[in-house]
């Protein structure tokens, strides 16, 4: 006659292995999410830096509100922290453009379809 007794010491319970795997998966997932969140934070910090003359609007670079104000009223360029703009010129396509500079960023903005779009940007 066979004994139907379960030898608890020789078998690893199924739930203990499941919990351990699940817990490790959550730790790895949480670490991956933290790294992703940090990358997004750094990326947005670069482009959304306070006072930055350039912002991203959808898939295009456009003048920030501060640069937009200076382009519409050049007397604002004399205020501390505002971008400076150069003389207006017309590019090959016939768009009205201005060079700009603020801090370590300079470039060119042109009025295209009613928006001040950044056509060239450099970091010094």
The secondary structure category is alpha+beta
Largest sheet, in brief, is: 5 strands, antiparallel
Distance between the termini: 88 Å
- What is the oligomer described by this structure? single chain
SSE order, one letter for each helix or strand: HEEHEEEEE
Which band does the percent of strand residues land in?
25-35%
Taking all residues together, what is the mean pLDDT?
78
Number of strands: 7
Helix content: 25-40%
Rg estimate, integer Å: 29 Å
Overall 3D form: elongated
DSSP summary: helix tally: 2
Low-confidence stretches: none
Give a description of the structure.
The structure is a single chain. Helix content is 34%, strand content 29%. Strands 3, 4, 5, 6 and 7 form a 5-stranded antiparallel beta sheet that branches. Strands 1-2 form a two-stranded antiparallel sheet. The model has no long low-confidence stretch (mean pLDDT 78). It starts with 13 loop residues before the first helix and ends with a strand. With 124 residues, it is α+β, with helices and mostly antiparallel strands. It is elongated, with a radius of gyration of 29 Å.
């Amino acid at each position: 006659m066979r004994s139907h007794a379960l030898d608890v010491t020789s078998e690893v319970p199924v739930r203990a292995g499941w919990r351990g795997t699940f817990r490790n998966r959550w730790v790895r997932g949480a670490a991956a999410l933290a790294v992703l969140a940090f990358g997004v934070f750094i990326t947005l910090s670069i482009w959304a830096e306070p006072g930055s003359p350039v912002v991203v609007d959808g898939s295009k670079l456009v003048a920030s509100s501060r640069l937009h104000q200076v382009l519409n009223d050049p007397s604002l360029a004399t205020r501390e922290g505002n971008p400076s703009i150069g003389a207006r010129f017309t590019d090959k396509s016939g768009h009205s453009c201005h060079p700009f500079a603020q801090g370590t960023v300079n470039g060119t903005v042109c009025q295209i379809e009613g928006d001040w779009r950044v056509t060239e940007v450099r970091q010094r």
